[in-house]
């Protein structure tokens, strides 16, 4: 079976890749909104945090940590349990807050970290 790419396929792929690359993701939108609301310093700090997270995730993937977790049922079970516990914690925090931290006086954004 020949795997020759036609010019039409290449053009379609290139156009789709460009659109995906140029569109802002949730990280970029958060950096933008935080920078507008809190200033350049906060936006840069959040952007650096996002970049550090991406680098860490990529490094762990390159080292094969995901393959090790997939190969070990115990490690995978612990990871699932930790993820579930964290989701329960986030849910409990959301229930306890009852939205009181969403806005302060005159509609300004609260400084309370997530």
Strand percent estimate: under 5%
Radius of gyration: 21 Å
> What is the N-to-C order of secondary-structure elements (H for helix, E for strand)?
HHHHH
What is the total tally of β strands? 0
In whole angstroms, the N-to-C terminal distance is 53 Å
**Could you estimate the helical fraction of the residues in percent?**
over 70%
Oligomer: single chain
Shape, please? extended
Which residues sit in consecutive blocks of at least 5 with pLDDT less than 50? Answer: none
Mean pLDDT: 87
The number of helical runs is 5
From the helix content, strand content and strand pairing, which structural class follows? mainly alpha
How would you sum up the major sheet?
A: none
Q: Which helices and strands, and how do they pair?
A:
Elements: H1 7-22, H2 26-38, H3 40-63, H4 65-71, H5 73-97
Helix pairs in contact: 2-3, 4-5
Subcellular location: Cell membrane
Protein name: LysE family translocator
Membrane topology: Multi-pass membrane protein
Summarize the structure.
The protein is mainly alpha-helical.
Task: Write a structural description.
- 75% of the residues lie in helices and 0% in strands.
- It is mainly alpha-helical.
- Among the domains are: 24-63; 66-100.
- Helix 2 (26-38) runs antiparallel to helix 3 and helix 4 crosses helix 5.
- It is extended, with a radius of gyration of 21 Å.
- The protein starts with 6 loop residues before the first helix and ends in a 17-residue tail after the last helix.
- 1% of the residues are buried.
- The mean pLDDT is 87.
């Amino acid at each position: 079976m020949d795997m020759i790419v036609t010019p039409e396929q290449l053009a379609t792929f290139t156009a789709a890749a460009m659109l995906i690359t140029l569109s802002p993701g949730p990280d970029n939108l958060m950096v933008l909104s935080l920078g507008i609301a809190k200033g350049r310093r906060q936006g840069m700090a959040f952007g650096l945090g996002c970049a550090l997270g991406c680098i860490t995730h990529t490094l762990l993937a390159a080292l094969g940590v995901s393959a090790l977790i997939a190969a070990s049922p115990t490690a995978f079970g612990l990871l699932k349990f930790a993820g579930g516990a964290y989701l329960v914690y986030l849910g409990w925090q959301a229930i306890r807050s009852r939205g009181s931290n969403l806005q302060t006086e005159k509609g300004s954004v609260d400084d309370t970290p997530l």
